[in-house]
Every structure is written in C-alpha cells, then in structure tokens.
Write a structure and sequence with these properties.
mainly alpha; about 80 residues; about 0% strand
Length: about 80
C-alpha cells in the first residue's frame, strides 16, 4: 500500500549549473606572474651588502607561500 504525501510536492527551483559555476569560481586562485619576473631583481636587492649566507628566496615568494598555505594544506600538495 502506497501512502499519500501530505502537503504540496517539493519542486527544486535551484539552478544547479549556476550553483556549480559559483563553487568553481569560489575555488579559483590567481597567481601573480610578476613574482617570477622580479625574482632575481628582488634577491639582488636583498643580498646587497649582506654578510653570511645569501637569501635564496625573495620576500614576495614567502608572502605568496603564506597566503597559499592558508588555502591548501600540506597533504593536498602532494
């Protein structure tokens, strides 16, 4: 015996294509390519007159990695 449903039948009015696109856009991450272009210039400025071991990574790269670390955990990068 089939039971009757009480109330109105549920109609899903969501636009799933739009919702999926919003999720994709929310997960996008834009990489600033100026970081790579200025790498040597920034390192030369940081290492000018430095005593001891030279810096290998510029400050802008460290800032980028800090931001990236907030979005992606270590196990996701492997």
């Amino acid at each position: 015996m089939q039971r009757k449903r009480w109330g109105k039948k549920f109609r899903d009015k969501r636009n799933w294509r739009k919702y999926t696109e919003e999720l994709v856009v929310r997960g996008e991450f834009y990489l600033d390519c100026k970081l790579v272009g200025n790498w040597n210039k920034e390192l030369n400025a940081m290492n000018e007159g430095k005593v001891g071991a030279l810096y290998e990574y510029p400050d802008s790269f460290m800032h980028f990695m800090a931001v990236l670390g907030q979005w992606i955990d270590y196990s996701s990068t492997i």
